Amino acid sequence: MTDLDTPYSLASAQIAQFRRDGFIKLKHVLSPETLVHFGNEITRLTIELNTEQRPLEERSTYNRAFLQVMNLWEQSPLVARFVMGQRLGRLAADLLEVEGVRLYHDQSLYKEPGGGITPAHADQYYWPLASDRTITAWIPLQPVPADMGPLGFYVGSQGVAFGRDLGISDESEAKISENMARHGFVFEAGPFDLGEVSFHLGWTFHKAGANRSDRPRSVMTVIYMDAAMRLVSALNVVQANDRDQWCPGAREGEVIATRKNPVVWHRG
Ligand SMILES: O=C(O)CCC(=O)C(=O)O
Questions:
Q1: Which residues line ligand 1 (CB under 6 A)?
Q2: Which CATH architecture has domain 2-266?
Q3: What is the DSSP code string of 39-58?
Q4: One MF term in GO for this entry (predicted)?
């Protein structure tokens, strides 16, 4: 599994592309063998730890989008090995153009067959973090063709303020999609090959289609932040919950260095 820790060759033009577009999709980041080895454990734990038992038609739009299980790295040494992988960590730091990255949290996002859309949103709405140096690696554990709900991105939307106060909901989908269309933002939503991984900034608007196939769309995500990231006061209840859950004991104004936020990769 050398691909877990060895550097991925990233061109400076790709870093510039990420700076401009707020996201990037990279092919052949992880091998099929690595994805099967860790993916089986991630999917197994997701099914085991999931608490959502209602049928799809009885759930909210958010809860129809995926089964969501967080911080699997704390549940399994095998998943911890994956989440602490040096290749993804280094890619995150290089794309963010920072000295190093810490873990904010991981989450498995399992879109069931028949699962609904993931409404448009920007992740950082949920996070009490001082800067925009946050990045999510979205790692499909199988290929994601168009009918399984690949993640799509509004190109260059990371600087747009409208919609930053909207959590994932029917309202965020309607208002953000309308605003993006009105201002001519291109929505890029192609399929993902096996081994392809996307990275997006915390303020980049994104969404995913429904899973119209008869197969589950199992995806692992790792959210990294600048290793020097500081905590700020929570703007809303969800940010307060996030703070207590993912950075317990961190203090406002200080670097977030709790036991749940290890440095994954650092230069030198
Ligand atoms: O997997 C999805 O459908 C949504 C993923 C997402 O919004 C994210 O990883 O930030």
A1: 65-66, 109, 111, 118, 123, 136, 138, 149, 151, 206, 208, 219, 221
A2: Sandwich (2.60)
A3: HHHHHHHHHHH----S-GGG
A4: iron ion binding
